[in-house]
UniProtKB/TrEMBL annotation, chain A:
It comes from the Bacteria. Belongs to the binding-protein-dependent transport system permease family. InterPro entries: BP-dependent_transpt_permease, MetI-like, MetI-like_sf, OppC_N. Pfam families: BPD_transp_1, OppC_N. It comes from Microvirga terrestris. This is ABC transporter permease.
Automatic annotation (TrEMBL), chain B:
Its main location: membrane. InterPro entries: BPD_transp_1_N, MetI-like, MetI-like_sf. The chain crosses the membrane at residues 12-31, 100-121, 133-161, 188-208, 242-270, 290-314. PROSITE patterns: ABC_TM1. It holds the Pfam family BPD_transp_1. Belongs to the binding-protein-dependent transport system permease family. This is ABC transporter permease. It is a multi-pass membrane protein. It comes from Microvirga terrestris. It comes from the Bacteria. Residues 94-311 form the ABC transmembrane type-1 domain. Keywords: Cell membrane, Membrane, Transmembrane, Transmembrane helix, Transport. The keyword Disulfide bond does not apply. The lineage of its organism: Bacteria, Pseudomonadati, Pseudomonadota, Alphaproteobacteria, Hyphomicrobiales.
From TrEMBL, chain C:
SUPFAM superfamilies: Periplasmic binding protein-like II (SSF53850). It comes from Microvirga terrestris. Its main location: periplasm. Residues 1-22 form the signal peptide. InterPro entries: Peptide/Ni-bd, SBP_5, SBP_5_dom. This is ABC transporter substrate-binding protein. The lineage of its organism: Bacteria, Pseudomonadati, Pseudomonadota, Alphaproteobacteria, Hyphomicrobiales.
Length: 300, 325, 536
């Protein structure tokens, strides 16, 4: 049993090494990794590098609203990417918006991953009625467009970063449960698990010490792409008028606010945050896609 | 076999029931439609009469049972906002959505399949990599922002196409369509393109993966060895082989787009079913939302049911006890 | 066969896209009427559409002054009895003559209206104790209580033709079905036009929900004939596409283009526009009753909104002119009361509600809040023009004087039910006066509610001023116009001084149209083909 684990771990390390090497060798992927790093850094440092705190209403002035990129405000500040309808500096708003989008993307994915992995593991381990029950719920969740579920849920519980995260967790856990179950079922048929069962090890130990670590890699790989999905979902929800509070706009909300000004030629309110959002999603997708291929996971 | 069909039938009914409960409660939870419908100056008595007429004074479960009873009789309720049957409202919007999705999926196929073939035949070539990277972009663009940028480019900057709405329609066999007028097509172009892009990316990936796989198959190698021209190989062997998964996926996408192309219809103010659904949610027009989701679910469940039965009938390996992984 | 069909379609397409006749008019609406039935739902788009096909006994002019319509004159006995003389020689579009019977029939329909939304006209006719027709050209209405606004309200009740239903002698006896022997029509019955028979300047042609309403000139109209043979209304909910459609020549008239876009047609000789102040006032309603209030956090744990000084400070902190300039793009008038001056019962020269942040800070300190307090402003984001932007701008101004403000913006579907449950501390509101009188806002929002909720139904903030209550209750039953106007002015001053409602501005309505047309805007925000004339 121990031996098989060592072998498995070794194979894992080798694979990881291979993946790293492949990431380094591909220019697109390398670019994506660097871009993702920059975006993460910008989001992290937003409070220190942004010219303005866009969440502080006292520092905004409606008299400076809808200024073109490069305009100078009443207080002498230069708005390099222009301002929105509330006089928010778009550059600052985008930096803070990146923060919100990443926060929502990462936390909700972590939450959904936790719940989904647990549910999938339980389903695979116990089988029978428990499995059937869990999987029917999963089917049900995956059968609906996630945007609709989240929209209706948020409409009834209101706005807030925390609430958006809850909504996204609710619509995303199911896909992890399905993946985890599939991976764990494969793992369960392996000899070392059978040996462990025959050995009389407690179920909990088998689940947590063997099944979980040996079948989670594929789920983790897919989750990179799901972070992008979660960020898109948040943006879309904000576009539809539910989502984060209007005074703390995420990238999606900034775009939504810019929509009505687009046709009047005030393109910068929707266009610039959109570019930031697309860069973020795209780099996540590229990295995730490469990871997935390297691990040869058939996701979704 | 009969037992299997029966079992699947029961499962389908259970799914419908579950969906109806969840949707009913979810819409119930959003808010009280009376405050939206009835102006505030109305006297308490009149307001109460209206509440009773709509059955909103009953507890949620009684309202649900009432709905269920009517639904079994084929009556999915009357719109709170328009006062006409919810199903009529939904069906009146069907042609607009249908033509939009039809055009979008055709675009996706016409552009996606050749590009997919190209990328699949030489997966390591530069153009192929560019195409595959392009598909990632296609997946990454959030639908609403992409729509806006299409409007910005083609309507605001270039002024070629109208920004939104449906154009001139003509009636074909009593069904209004804008596919046959120039104005209609102009209005269709941007929303259809917006819907088509992610599907195009999907098509490319499916076709490329299938092609690459098919090219390594023995029969293709054999044909090559025999000196069959590659055009013929692609046309006869590869394409035919990948068409089944492509058609299956395209069909499923078609279905879900017809039912839920809400975002694109919202951005382009397209008077289709998805827009109706969003509007109805915002207007708390409960009967329309519930009827809509029920119809969509019914459609999906029915299709799934038929597919499963067909599979079971055609493929003896399918476990007939209903335990399908 | 197929080819032939296609050819036929292409041919018909070409015909359809041929240049429209000069006599037809295409108008793009921002919100679509929800039904053709004129008694279904008392909504602005529905009433505006109904006014094309149907007449009321009276009508309101552009400034909401009451004018004769199907009634040529009316008088009141100083109590509850009104006598209306009906116009002679009027016929419905189906050729039937118009008589007092049609009036009784229509009033009955509003009460025998199974599918109607509550408060849609039945609240008016429900107050009638009797409606009699001493002769075919006279209608006598008796109301439960004296109602000085009856002629105003009658302008909104469309008169249907009694010929659409089988009936015996028509009487205003609802219990006996008014003498009608057939089944009263429901809302859906009107949509195909068979029942949409009126005396208005236009008649119904077709209605496709979400796509268009088509009307044609009523050649039997009793008044001056309209210049347009055909009128089409097209719903285009987004402002951008609406304007784009006008610029492209698809529409002749559009309502509510975004104010910022007016600059684009200003210098274009092909188009023209009109900005008309409306009676719709936008304001904040404060919770002045509860202790504590759900969305207020002060260091002393109290509800500072109960303090008139704090309310005054809040009003002083807001720069109304800046909001109108920067957010409304000029398409609004600052509001220092709840109905624009010039309207019935409004002050001619209300004192300006000035922007003075220094004075606001001073007042806050005097009230015991030198460090301000925390508050959440609740707002819709899909109901009034720029509603959520306005609230955010106000939040900026309040924060700048120390009242740290959050904004909770939500769809009206969520907002209105929550506001009715009094879940907010500071709530954005909007109110247009359908009667054109100052009483409309005051009795609905500021009055202490009565049992039946006929007044004070929207007093969610718990404002209570006994002196004001006395004034408003007197005003709404005073038949003498001069006296009533005077009392309403006094009542209005009380509410402004009370500070529980902070008015911001009156929305203006914009119509843009081709330069070869002339459009007269209306204060009630109705968009009507009757307002469009060819320019000379």
């Amino acid at each position: 049993m121990t031996a098989s684990r060592v072998v498995a771990a070794d194979a894992d390390t080798a694979l990881r090494y291979k993946v790293l090497r492949r990431i380094k060798s591909r220019p697109t992927t390398r670019g994506a990794v660097i871009l993702l790093g920059i975006l993460l850094l910008l989001a992290l440092l937003a409070p220190f590098i942004a010219p303005q705190n866009p969440h502080d209403l006292a520092s905004l002035s409606v008299m400076d609203n809808r200024l073109e990129p490069g305009s100078q405000g009443m207080t002498g500040i230069t708005y390099w990417l222009g301002t929105d309808a509330q006089g928010r500096d778009m550059l600052s708003a985008i930096l803070y918006g990146l923060r919100t989008s990443l926060l929502v993307g990462l936390t909700s994915t972590a939450g959904a991953l936790g719940i989904g992995v647990f549910a999938g593991l339980v389903a695979a381990q116990f089988g029978g009625t428990i499995d059937a029950a869990i999987m029917r719920v999963v089917d049900f969740m995956l059968g609906f467009p996630s945007i609709l579920i989240a929209l209706v849920l948020l409409a009834s519980i209101g706005r807030g970063v925390d609430k958006v995260i809850i909504a996204i967790i609710l619509v995303q856990w199911a896909q992890y449960a399905r993946l985890m179950r599939a991976a764990a079922l494969v793992e369960r048929r392996k000899e070392y698990i059978e040996a462990a069962v025959n050995f009389g090890l407690p179920t909990r130990h088998i689940m947590l010490a063997h099944l979980l670590p040996n079948s989670i890699s594929s789920v983790l790989v897919v989750s990179t792409i799901s972070i992008a999905g979660a960020i898109t979902l948040e943006a879309t929800l904000s576009f539809l008028g539910v989502g984060v509070p209007v005074t703390q706009p995420s990238l999606g909300l900034l775009i939504a606010n810019g929509f009505e000004f687009l046709l009047s030629g005030e393109y910068w309110i929707a266009a610039f945050p959109g570019i930031a959002l697309v860069l973020l999603i795209m780099s996540l997708n590229l990295v995730g896609e490469r990871l997935r291929r390297s691990f040869n996971v058939r996701g979704q | 076999m009969t037992a299997y069909i029966l079992q699947r039938l029961i499962q389908s009914v259970l799914v419908l029931l579950a969906v109806s409960i969840v949707v009913f409660l979810a819409v119930y939870g959003i808010g009280d439609p009376i405050e939206l419908l009835v102006p505030p100056q109305v006297s308490a008595a009149e307001r109460m009469a209206m509440i009773q007429r709509l059955g909103l004074d009953l507890p949620a479960w009684q309202q649900y049972l009432g709905f269920l009873g009517n639904a079994l009789k084929g009556d999915l309720g009357y719109s709170f906002v328009h006062g006409v049957p919810a199903v009529d409202l939904i069906l009146a919007r069907l042609p607009a959505t249908f033509e939009l999705v039809l055009l979008a999926m055709s675009l996706a196929a016409i552009i996606g399949i050749p590009l997919g073939l190209l990328a699949g035949l030489n997966p390591e070539s530069r153009p192929s990599r560019a195409i595959m990277a392009g598909t990632i972009l296609g997946f990454s663009l959030p639908s609403f922002w992409k729509g806006m940028m299409l409007i910005l480019l083609f309507s605001v900057f270039l002024g070629w196409l109208p920004t939104a709405g449906r154009g001139e329609t003509v009636s074909v066999l009593g069904i209004p369509t804008s596919l046959l007028t120039l104005d209609g097509l102009k209005h269709l172009a941007l929303p259809a393109l917006n819907l088509a892009i992610p599907n195009m990316a999907l098509m490319i990936r499916l076709v490329a993966a299938g092609t690459t796989e098919a090219m390594t198959q023995d029969y293709v190698k054999y044909a090559r060895a025999k000196g069959v021209r590659s055009r013929r190989i692609v046309g006869r062997h590869v394409l035919r082989n990948i068409l089944i998964p492509v058609v299956t996926v395209a069909g499923m996408e078609f279905g879900s787009l017809v039912a839920f192309s809400t975002i694109t219809e919202t951005v382009f103010a397209w008077p289709g079913m998805g827009k109706l659904l969003i509007d109805s949610i915002y207007q708390l027009d409960r009967p329309v939302v519930v009827a809509y989701v029920m119809l969509a679910t019914l459609l999906f469940v029915a299709v799934n049911f038929l597919v499963d039965i067909l599979y079971a009938a055609l493929d003896p390996r399918v476990n007939l006890t209903g335990e399908m992984a | 066969m197929h080819r032939l069909l296609i050819f036929a379609f292409v041919a018909s397409t070409c015909l359809l896209s041929a240049p429209a006749w000069a006599q037809s008019l295409k108008i793009a609406l921002s919100s679509e009427p929800t039904a053709i039935d004129p008694h279904y739902h008392d909504l602005t788009p529905n009433n505006a559409l109904a006014a094309h096909i149907f007449d009321g006994l009276t009508k309101q002019d552009e400034q909401q002054k009451v004018l004769p319509n199907l009634a040529t004159s009316w008088e009141n006995d100083g109590q509850s009895r009104w006598t209306f003389k009906l116009r002679e020689g009027v016929t419905f579009s189906n050729g039937q003559p118009f008589t007092a019977d049609d009036v009784i029939f229509s009033f009955c329909r509003t009460l025998k209206n199974e599918t109607a939304i509550a408060g849609s006209f039945a609240d008016i006719t429900g107050n009638f104790t009797a409606v009699e027709a001493p002769d075919p050209q006279t209608i006598v209405i008796t109301t439960k209580a004296p109602d000085p606004l009856l002629p105003n309200f009658l302008s909104s009740i469309a008169i249907l033709s009694s010929s659409i239903l089988p009936h015996d002698k028509l009487t205003f006896d609802v219990a006996k079905n008014c003498g009608v022997t057939g089944a009263w029509p429901v809302v859906g019955d009107f949509n195909d036009g068979k029942l949409a028979i009126g005396t208005g300047p236009y008649k119904f042609k077709s209605y496709t929900k979400g796509t268009s309403v088509e009307l044609e000139r009523n050649d039997k109209y009793w008044g001056q004939s309209e210049p347009w043979a055909n009128v089409t209304f097209v719903p285009v909910p987004n402002a951008g596409p609406r304007l784009a459609g006008l610029l492209a020549g698809d529409y002749d008239v559009i309502e509510n283009p975004a104010a910022r876009d007016v600059a684009r047609i200003k210098d274009d000789k092909r188009f023209s526009y009109v900005i008309t102040p409306s009676t719709r006032v936008i304001y904040f309603q404060l919770d002045v009753e509860r202790e504590p209030s759900p969305f207020v956090k002060a260091e002393n744990g109290k509800n500072p909104l109960k303090d008139p000084k704090v309310r005054k400070a809040m009003s002083l902190a807001i720069d109304r002119d800046a909001i109108i300039k920067r957010i409304m793009d000029g398409a609004a008038e600052p509001a220092y009361q709840f109905l624009p001056n010039g309207m019935f019962g409004a002050l001619e020269n209300p004192p300006k509600l000035a922007y003075d942040p220094a004075a606001a800070k001073k007042l806050l300190a005097e009230a015991g809040y030198p460090n301000g307090f925390q508050i959440t402003l609740s707002t819709t984001n899909d109901r009034y023009i720029n509603d959520s932007q306005i609230t955010q701008a106000v939040a900026q101004y309040l924060t700048q004087v120390g009242i740290r403000s959050e904004v909770d913006a939500m769809a009206r579907a969520i907002y209105f039910p929550r506001r009715a449950k009094k879940e907010f501390s500071v709530a954005l509101g909007g109110w247009g006066s359908t009667s054109g009188e100052a009483s409309s806002f005051l009795k609905q929002w500021a009055a202490t509610p009565d049992e039946a909720k006929t007044i004070g139904g929207s007093n969610y903030g718990g404002y209570a001023d006994p002196e004001f209550d006395k004034l408003i209750r007197t005003a709404i039953t005073t038949l003498d116009d001069a006296k009533r106007a005077e009392i309403l002015k006094q009542a209005g001053v009380k509410v402004i001084e009370g500070g529980a409602f902070i008015p911001l501005h009156f929305e203006s309505t914009i119509w843009a149209y081709k330069a070869n047309l002339k459009y007269t805007g209306r204060a009630d925000q109705f968009t009507m083909a009757m307002q469009v004339k060819p320019a000379k």
